[in-house]
Amino acid sequence: MFPAFLVQIALWVIVVRSIYVVVKRSRGMNWLDITFHLSIAIVALNILLPHGYSYYIY
Known about the structure:
Low-confidence stretches: none
Radius of gyration: 13 Å
Shape: elongated
Oligomer: single chain
Helix content: 55-70%
Structural class: mainly alpha
């Protein structure tokens, strides 16, 4: 199993990369690609944030 801090770093990289792709390429992407990258960022943020904040999604 990987240490928790490596998993957190990887999740932050996923969040930043997903948001970057949406912002940088939003004019040339179709709506399905944009929603895919946004959903990846949302899921990664939900995993990263403390469980006290996850009730907003449910």
